[in-house]
Design goal:
The chain is of the alpha/beta class and about 325 residues long. The chain is about 40% helix and about 10% strand. The chain has two domains: about 10-245, Aldolase class I (TIM Barrel), CATH 3.20.20.70; about 255-320, Four Helix Bundle (Hemerythrin (Met), subunit A) (Up-down Bundle). Helix 15 runs antiparallel to helix 16 (about 310-320). The radius of gyration is 20 Å and the shape is globular.
């Protein structure tokens, strides 16, 4: 099956969007495009591929995000990802961490658009699924008007199928990775201008978008919206994604229904030796604003980490929450 709709996606987030998180999110939206955490080409080529790349079939459409800069390694890793069944390969040109900078991948590649283009070209030649790029407006002292267009021109000419833009610069010198998520000012208009300059190319906007209402406003100017921390920290928002953004029915009406649907997956993972906390750590914000949410979080925190913790721990935690859909799904 091919997936082409890029209207709405959940951002790749290190330490967050693992396979358990993605299964959870999929139960709230059938249509959002999901992304893995960034995986380096080195890890894929030399590591435990089944552990790193394995995913549940329910996750489709799901994209593999790569970190790397060597065209041959990117091509080989992209092919491995395609063979595992991913629906898209995405190249990270936006992560600002020190580890990324030292490894010559992530945001530092904003300074090397020709190298990024060679990587895109190599991946396009290696796979038959879409290859996309996720970037920033620029880095450090770069002028975003020049830097973003330069990168876009190169990767589009190389065959990139879409460009996802986090609407902030990244300061590799002077700001921590955490600070880079908040301190550089957002400039959505710069992304709108990029879309105007490349009308034939799907442009997806990311960064600081806190609600589906905001997402809908952006969709008047660009082709797609990528939600990051808001989707993770307040996952109940995703219950309205399909009705509001796709005109389709939600998979489940309430968070408790989502958790009931997830129980077989959790039981299966526990039977394979996965610890309950590895899954339930993604549920912290599920009942934001609902009476009993604090007791739900506390019960999971105290009991989900215990050896042998099973689905009964989650059921007991859910029972502490009052029977309401969730916090009001509004702006």
């Amino acid at each position: 099956m091919k997936y082409h709709d890029r209207r709405f996606a959940i951002a790749p987030m290190m330490d967050w969007t693992d396979r358990h998180c993605r299964v959870f999110h999929r139960l709230m939206t059938r249509h959002a495009r999901l992304y893995t955490e960034m995986l380096t080409t080195g890890a894929i080529l030399h590591g435990d591929r089944r552990r790193l790349l394995g995913f549940d079939s329910s996750e489709h459409p799901v994209a593999l995000q790569l970190g790397g800069s060597d065209p041959r390694d990117l091509a080989a890793s992209a092919k491995i990802g395609e063979d595992f069944g991913y629906d898209e390969i995405n190249l990270n040109v936006g992560c600002p961490s020190d580890r990324v900078k030292d490894g010559r991948f992530g945001a530092c590649l904003m300074a090397e658009p020709a190298l990024v283009a060679r990587g895109v070209d190599a991946m396009k030649r290696a796979v038959n699924i879409p290859v996309t790029v996720k970037c920033r407006l620029g880095i450090d002292e770069q002028d975003p008007e020049i830097a973003l267009d330069a990168l876009a021109r190169e990767v589009i000419a190389a065959g990139a199928d879409a460009l996802i833009v986090h609407a902030r610069k990244a300061w590799l010198n002077g700001l921590s990775p955490k600070e880079n998520r908040d301190i550089p000012p957002l400039d959505y208009d710069r992304v709108y201008r990029l879309k105007a300059a490349f009308p034939e190319v799907p442009i997806i906007i990311n960064g600081g978008i806190a609600s589906l209402a905001e997402a809908a406003q952006h969709l008047a100017r660009v082709d797609g919206v990528m939600l990051g921390r808001a989707a993770y920290q307040e996952p109940w928002r995703l219950l309205a994604a399909d009705p509001e953004l796709f005109g389709a029915a939600a998979p489940h009406a309430a968070m408790k229904d989502v958790f009931e649907a997830m129980m077989p997956y959790i039981a299966n993972q526990l039977a394979q030796g996965i610890r309950l906390h590895s899954i339930t750590r993604h549920f912290v914000g599920a009942f934001h604003g609902v009476p009993g949410a604090r007791a739900f979080r506390r019960h999971l925190a105290e009991n989900g980490v215990k050896p042998g913790a099973g689905v009964s721990v989650l059921r007991d935690a859910i029972a502490l929450v009052e029977d309401r859909v969730a916090a009001p799904i509004a702006a």
